[in-house]
C-alpha cells in the first residue's frame, strides 16, 4: 500500500495477501512463534476445540462470559474449515502452536493437530486483544509488548467468571502499561471492539484483582512498568483454558497463549461506533 | 414523573417545571447554595462574563481548550438573556452566587449582579461536569459528592492550557473517586458528553498532575477516598477563573465554583453516541 489515499478494496486485498502468506508460513510450521503485531488490521482469534458432547456447555460458558469469551465463529461438527473467517482456513494446521489438554491436564504442545483431529470435534474461535492492539496503535498509542517484540503479559486474576455447564474458573487478563491519559484513551478505543474483549476490566493496583506480582506473569512475557504508568488489564481469551482445566473434558485443543489464528476479517469489521 | 413508561415530551415538561421553580428560587436568593445533584437531567453551566473588548480573546481561549472550556452559549453584547439555554434566563440574577474579579483579583461574592451589569458585557456559558454526574448516576454508578451532599473537590493541576489572547494558565480539575471497574465505566459514560468536559483527563496518582494533597482541594469540599478506589479527574469549568486571574481584565464576573446556571437543555441533548 503506498500513497496517502486508499482504495478500500485495495486495502483489504493487500491485507489478505499478507495474511494468506502468513497463514501459509504457519501451516508449514515455518512460523511457530507469537502473532502479536503480525497481520495488523486483521482479526486474530483464540481457539478452543472440543468434542461435540462438550460443545453445548462451552457455548453456554461463552454466552455467560462475553467479555472474556467473545465468540466470533463455531465450526460444523467434524469440519476443520471456518469459511466465515477465511476461505482456506484449516484449523488443524493454521495455528503456530497448539496446547493439547487431556482430562484437564496440559499433556502436549504441537505445531499441527492433523493426527489428533476427530470426526466429532467442534472448533470455537474467540476474538483476541491483538485486534485492539492494532486499533490502539492506529490511535497513536504505544503498545509496549509490540514495541519490545515480546508476548503480552497474562495473569490469572481472582475475578470469577459465570459458570456454563461444566466450565468454570477465574478470568485470565492481559496487561499493558499506559500513562493515565493514554489509559483513558485506551478505554475509549477498545470500547469500540466488544468482540475483541472491549474495554479494560481493571486498571491500577493489581492486588485488587488477585495479582501478587506483575513481574511474573502466568502466561506470556514480563513487561516493564515505567514511572507514571498504570497497568491496564483486559479480559483475555486464555480464560477458557483455565475453565478447560476445571471441566476436564477427555480432550481439548487450544492455541498456545499469544499464538493465535490469523483470520481474513478486518478489525474494522468487528468494531462498533 | 410516575410509572415506568415515559412520554418523552412529558419527561421534558416535567423537568422544565422543576428547573423553572429552581431558577426562581435562585433568582430570589432563596437558594444560594451549590447546584450539584439539583435539576437532574438538565444541563448546568459554568459562567464567565466579560466586557466586549475581552470577548474575542476569551472565545479564542475556549476554542483552544475545548475540554476544560466547552462553550455552549454566548450572549449578545449587553443582553443578559440567553434564550438558547432557557426562555426566561437573566444571567444577572440566575446564579446562586457570583465571583466578581477586578484586574484579576477576586474582590466580592454576591447573589445578584444587577448593579454591576454593563451595556458592553458578554456572558459565556460552558458545559459543566454536573451534567455527566447525572449520566453516571443513570448508568448505576455512585457519585460520592452527591451521596455526601457536598460540593465536588476541585484542584489546580499543573496541566497547561493553550493560551488564547491574554488568557492563559493551568487546568482546574474536579475529582470523583471510583473503584477501577467503575472508573472504566465512567470513562465510557462521560465520553458521550464532550460538551460537559467529556472523558477524564487523569486517573490514579494525583502528584502526576501536580496535586500534592487530595484532602485539601483548592475549591469545593474534600471527598473521602476509600480503599480500592482511584481518584478520577475531569477538566473543570473553573479553569477560566484561573485564566481570568492571569489575564487581569478590569472586570470579570463568574459563578462561584459548584453554584452553576441551571438551563432548560436536557443533558441528553448535549450527548453523542
UniProtKB/TrEMBL annotation, chains A, B:
UniProt protein name: Putative hydro-lyase KDW95_11480
Similarity section: Belongs to the D-glutamate cyclase family.
Keywords, comma-separated and alphabetical: Lyase
Domain of life per record: Bacteria
Pfam families: D-Glu_cyclase (PF07286)
Stored HAMAP family: Hydro_lyase
Known EC number: 4.2.1.-
